[in-house]
Amino acid sequence: MDVLARLSSNMKSMERELQCPVCKDIVKQPVVLPCLHSVCLLCASEVLVQSGYPQPELPPEPNSPASTPNTRSPRQARRPMPKADRIDRALRPGFGTYPGRRRKEGPTQLMLFPCVPCGRDVELGERGLVDCMRNLTLERIVERYRHTVSLGSVAVMCQFCKPPQALEATKGCADCRASFCNECFKLYHPWGTPRAQHEHVQPTLNFRPKVLTCPEHDQEKLQFYCKSCQRLLCSLCKLRRVHTGHKIVPVTQAYQALKDKITKELNYILSNQGTVLTQITQLENAITQTEVNSVGAREQLAQCVRELMALLSERQAMLAQGLESSRQKRSEALANQVAERRSLLEHAGLMAFTQELLKETDAACFVHAARQTHNRLAQSIESLQSFSLSADPSFRHFQLDVSRELKLLTDLNFIQAPLAPVIDTQRTLAYDQLFLCWRLPQESSPAWHFSVEYRRRGVVPGGGARGGIRGGLAGARWGWQRLEEVSGTSAVIDRLEMDSVYVLRVRGCNKAGFGEYSEEVYLHTPPAPVLNFYLDSRWGLHADRLVVSKEQRCARSVPGLSLLQAADRALTSCHLTADLLVGDVAVTQGRHYWACSVEPGSYLVKVGVGLESKLQEWFHLPQDMASPRYDPDSGHDSGAEDSSDSPPSFTFLTMGMGKIYLPPSANSHHGTANHRDGGITNGNGPSSPTGVTYPLPPRLGVCLDVEKGRVTFYDAHSLRPLWEGPVDCSAPVCPAFCFIGGGALQLQELVANRNADQTPVRRVTIQSRVTKLN
């Protein structure tokens, strides 16, 4: 019984592979669509007609017992037409909504077939189903399947014997595509005629043509296969211009390659049947757990609703009690006021007593007893003249405003996982460490914590980025590494590879589980270790126009009186007012990187490096100094006029008014400096004899290579090289900044110092610089 049940299950599973996706029955005369799905030829034509295309010309059905009424099985006694509802489902909104032209409108230019398995429209081309070849292999598999389900071989009867004397067929003719008994075969294939040369085969229910022929070129064999188009070609199709440059191989080679691939894939699956069974068991367990957990979730839902209803009932009782207490107090107050008014009636209460009091004739006794009555009457008259209810009967302030609660109940839903966070690209950066900042969308559910994942771009298995992270690390040495349970909306990742691109993403987590990942962001780490320094304002500082922040990481230059006083000489000489700021660190070896930002509204700001001694010599001058450009033989600000073969003593890039000036390229690789910054642009901008200008980047990066004597300027946001040039590194070199006119500059703060409570103690990273004030 188990064997039969397993066999039946396998047969049903096999039958699903042989079903037409339109009529849901075993395929008959299947054709292969361009999407590689097979569908009955009759079903395909009906779908196209329903879509508004003309009725296609169908080839005649094969004259085989498999398609004749007297020999086909009882279950296949009558071929049903595709049901209208199934065709309608195939043409449901979403695909199949492009009707073709009617017959009166001429030939169809483009046919679209709504493929049910794909869920989209498939282009059939101008010729429609004519270009779709029969799937003869599938037909043969269907024939073998029908033999199997019949539990034995089905007798193939002669198609030319007249019933009921039909005999069993003994031969089949591949050219006539029919099965014959011995007598009929001799009758229809007489000796000495061309029919006698027909190829005879075993009787069968499905005759395949000897070779597949091209649907466009009659009798042309399909001998080639185009890998680019993934279709069979004949020798004439191969010569078409559309296949120029395509990789075309003989069909035998494509057959062997595809057969080998399928064989390997089949063997792999068959050799991993244990894995398949394990996964089936896991899926079945998952289905069971789904049912169990759904029952638990339904019970929890009912419990939550019961708790809400109980809370509402409790709250209703409390509010009703308060309402009843107020009603009683108001009713008592109004009832007392009614009793007072009734006592003022003519024959009741106070009025009757007063009338009896007026009958008293003894003056002393009357005065003694009437004073209290007089007071009561005066109060009653005042009450009559200023009548008002002692209690408000409206109960207006006892109305409930449940609009907010109704909205909450309307929005009541199951817990949703957080939506994909949005990376804040303005605050996210790579400097001494990676700093990642994000936020949740406004409509997102709150997150308990976040998971930050990152990897080095281009890492191969076993070659992951080394280093650690701040927080718990869960991950392999290659691939994605993870920061688990990150609280807040920012994270810091340190100890990363220099000059590398890292991919980062983040997702939130709450009671419902993890949400979707954010979009991946790419951060380029600096090309060298970050040099941390502060501004040293002891050179050229003029308090009236240059201000350095308390943290000594920001400087602002404001044109003062000295600049106005020098303005009267602007027409007769070339005098400038410049202020120099240098870093409190000088380096003598290694590679170092730092970044800064220049205010776009600055007039002129120069950023670069230079020899400490030369900078002191050239810039430690009075306020009004002659510009080096004033000398006819100068032409640059590098200080290398004495020797054209020696590298310049200092190198600057000039920024101002929202632009950055990149000097013209020079033969800087050979140590010459014909211009102020004497360098190359590395192909990032067009070469010009006068240099070029670009929009000022948000942050400017500077990389100094002491051993090579080179300095490179970067767009610090994207780490794109802007310009490169030489610099003399024979002595200590320090960062330098020069202000001409108004401007502001901000050093990039270290990521490690972002959360520091106070400014760290100033330290010398490489070598302390001894400042000579004299």
UniProtKB/TrEMBL annotation:
Domain COS intervals: 358-415
Keyword Lipid metabolism: no
Ranges where the B30.2/SPRY domain occurs: 513-756
Annotated keywords: Coiled coil, Metal-binding, Zinc, Zinc-finger
Taxonomic superkingdom: Eukaryota
Signal peptide: none
GO CC annotation, single: axon cytoplasm
GO BP annotations listed: anterograde synaptic vesicle transport; axonogenesis; microtubule bundle formation; neuron migration
InterPro entries: B30.2/SPRY (IPR001870), B30.2/SPRY_sf (IPR043136), ConA-like_dom_sf (IPR013320), COS_domain (IPR017903), E3_ligase_FN3/SPRY (IPR050617), FN3_dom (IPR003961), FN3_sf (IPR036116), Ig-like_fold (IPR013783)
Entry GO MF terms: zinc ion binding
Family from the record: Belongs to the TRIM/RBCC family.
Name under which the protein is recorded: RING-type E3 ubiquitin transferase
